[in-house]
Structure formats: C-alpha cells, structure tokens
Specification:
Radius of gyration: 20 Å
Largest sheet: 5 strands, mixed, barrel
Strand order of the largest sheet: 1-2-3-7-4
Structural class: alpha+beta
Number of helices: 7
Distance between the termini: 41 Å
Number of strands: 12
Helix content: 25-40%
Length: 293
C-alpha cells in the first residue's frame, strides 16, 4: 500500500459541502463555481452534465494520477450539493437544447479554483510576449506523457494565474474530463491527440531524455495497487455502480504504461512542425541509441 499522502493526494476524504453558487463557468460540462464548507472555491461538475456522467470519474482519477506524477494540478474534491441549495438557486440548471433541468443533487466533482475569485487574473494561455520558465516547459513534456497514456480526447487545457506583485505566472493543468476518451473508457491513439495549442512549449524537445523524469516514473514506479488506491473512494454513482468497468479501466491503464514511449516517438517523428528539433532517424530508448526503421 503506497503512502499517497506524502504526495499531497487525499483519498477517502469526506466530501465538502457546497454552500453558495457564485457563477456559471464556460465549457460543455456546464460547471459552476461554488463556495464550499471548507472556505474554498471549487469549479463543480454535476452528475447530469451534458457530456457524460463518467466525466466526474475521469476528472477525479486523472487529476490524482497527474499529481502522483508530479505535474501541476489543482486540488480535487468530492463536493456534496444539497437539493435545497439547487431549489433555491435559479442558475443551478443544465441548459439542454429544448429544456432547462435542475442540476442533480448529491455528490459532484470539484476542482479547487486556481487564482483569486475576486480578480479576473486567470488566462487560458500565456501572453505571447511572456516566456515560459524551464520548469513550466518540463511540465508540458510531462503533460504530454500523461495525455498519451490516458488517451485524452481533448487538447491539453492549462490555466495561468499571477498574483499581485508576482513577476511570472503560476500554471496548473486542468480539465481532465476527456481522458480515457470521455465516457467511452477506451484508448484510441493519435499522434496529435492531447497537444497544447501553443506549440512553443514543445520547440526544445529533441529526444526521449526530455521527457524525464516523468517517463521513467510512469514506467517503473506506478503499480496496479497505486491505481486502485487512487480510485478506491470514487462515488459509485458516478460510474453507475459498474465496478467491473472501473476495474477494467484501471487494468488497461496499468498495461498501457508500456506503450507510452512508442507513442511519444511516433508523435514527435510524425509532427515536425510541432517538434522541430526532434532528432530524425535516430531515437533514444532508455540510455541507448537505436535506428528508426
């Protein structure tokens, strides 16, 4: 049994209670920003969101997996939203093509707000004149490993925030709902899948060494036991009590760890505009060189 608390990953924690709806967020899941009983603000996705109920599983599990790898994420929580709060809050509805329906009460997914709730200082991408730090560029390489492994069907979503007096921007990886191909829970792979819109972040990637230490950590340190630990407290109603399906997903994730190295090589080799400095014709596997057929 691994000590996940050492990595700042809480499992089996009690849900926090939503006490106030702040505003509706942009995006297809129709999430809401809510103030909760721990005096924190969370972006809350509901079970009856228009995308898929399993999106909540994807968000909680994938956020924990990213944190386990050491990638920048926002803390995740299970948020309980009461029927009374929904009844008293006009905006807690899902906008469907032909009707508005109330958000479903019960346990929902919450991603802690990144930045200040009172200041609109969050950005979806870094201003073009600003430079990424070395640490941030490394995190983008780690994110690509993560998105290839989890078959993220969406482009990589990142948020930047700068506090007053701060010179640069802090960064967090957000929106994991389309990992595992959204509600399908399968893994269709594609070289361009999971890339971030600002291709500058990949410009200095030359060999597989640039994906370390995250690649080796995924391949050699993650175990099936860790995967089950990270998923053990996911509310069963989020996956319709289909425990076999969840266990199958975890087992496939475990087996896919051995495919990520090849996926990265393929993506870098077939996308020269995205990876302009990739060493063509020869690639690194571990610490040894081998020719590409």
């Amino acid at each position: 049994m691994s000590d996940l608390s050492e990595k700042g990953i809480r499992v089996s924690a009690k849900p926090v209670l939503a006490v106030e709806e702040i505003r509706r967020m942009r995006g297809g899941s129709q999430a809401h920003l809510m103030r909760c009983s721990d005096d924190q603000y969370y972006v809350v996705k509901f079970q009856n969101n228009p995308q898929h109920r399993r999106v909540l599983v994807n968000e909680l599990l994938a956020t924990r997996l990213a944190a386990w790898l050491g990638l920048p994420t926002t803390p995740a929580a299970v948020v309980e939203v009461s029927e009374e709060l929904i009844r008293l809050t006009h905006d807690l509805v899902m906008e469907l093509p032909r009707q508005r329906i109330p958000c479903q009460p019960g346990l929902q997914f919450g991603s802690r707000l990144f930045g200040n709730v009172r200041i609109a200082n969050n950005l979806g991408c870094l201003p073009y004149g600003d430079l990424y730090t070395t640490e941030q560029l490394g995190s983008f390489a780690g994110m690509l490993i993560f998105d290839k492994w989890t078959s993220n069907a969406d482009g990589r979503q990142v948020i930047f925030s700068r506090a007053g007096g701060q010179l640069g921007y802090s960064m967090a990886m957000i929106d994991q709902g389309f990992c595992f191909n959204c509600g399908e829970w399968n893994f269709p792979d594609s070289p361009l899948r999971g890339l971030y819109l600002d291709r500058r972040v990949y410009a200095e990637i030359k060999t597989l060494d640039d994906f370390e230490p995250w690649l080796s950590k995924l391949e050699s340190e993650l175990t099936l036991g860790v995967l089950f630990d990270l998923a053990k407290d996911i509310p069963p109603e989020w996956y319709a009590h289909q425990t076999d399906s969840l266990h199958s997903l975890l087992s496939r994730l475990n087996r896919r760890r051995g495919t990520v190295r090849e996926q990265l090589q393929t993506a870098c080799r077939l996308s020269p505009r995205v990876f302009p400095k990739w060493i063509k014709g020869r690639e690194l596997q571990g610490n040894s060189w081998f020719a590409v057929a």
